[in-house]
Specification:
This protein has helices spanning about 5-20, 50-60; strands at about 80-85, 90-95, 100-105, 110, 115-120, 120-125, 130-135. With about 140 residues, it is of the alpha+beta class. The protein has a domain at about 75-135: SH3 type barrels (Roll). The chain has a four-stranded antiparallel beta sheet, with no helix packed on it. The longest helix is centred in the N-terminal third of the chain and has 15 residues, at about 5-20. The protein is flat, with a radius of gyration of 41 Å.
């Protein structure tokens, strides 16, 4: 005889038990409500109107904190100084940005800032009166 899978066997047992009346549920009695629900008369209000007006006058609209405007990123924050080459006639700064390695000579503009000075540990970029020091990361 061929064996039936466990789910088929379970389904057959439930059908047999259901047919025998074991799984029948008792009916639920309907809820009974009174024929008339008492209503509040027009002369008797639930809230005193003068009190309600006072509460409404004291209410203020909900003020939500305005989110602070995002701080703009500095143009030089995309660059990391990875090396400095100093020479008699100036030198170069080796910078890394999202696109790869950038080489900048003194006087060259990178990210809107001009490379104005080099030291063994850093490079100074300037735009107008603003100066930015990029320090070498070891």
């Amino acid at each position: 005889m061929k064996q039936l899978g466990p789910y088929v066997t379970l389904a057959l047992i439930l059908i047999v038990l259901g047919g025998a009346g074991f799984l029948r549920l008792a009916p639920i009695a309907p809820a009974e409500f009174p024929a008339e629900t008492p209503m509040v008369g027009a002369e008797r209000a639930l809230v005193d109107q003068a009190e309600l007006a006072g509460v409404v006058a004291r209410m203020r609209p909900l003020r939500r904190a305005t989110p602070a405007a995002p701080t703009p990123r500095h143009p030089m924050s995309d660059y990391t100084l990875i090396g400095v080459v100093e020479a008699d006639g100036g030198g170069w700064a080796l910078l890394r940005d999202m696109d790869g390695v950038v080489t900048a000579r003194i006087g060259q503009v990178v990210g809107g800032f001009e490379l104005v000075e080099l030291s063994p540990d850093g490079a100074i970029f300037a735009r107008g009166s603003e100066e930015v020091l990029l320090e070498r990361s070891y």
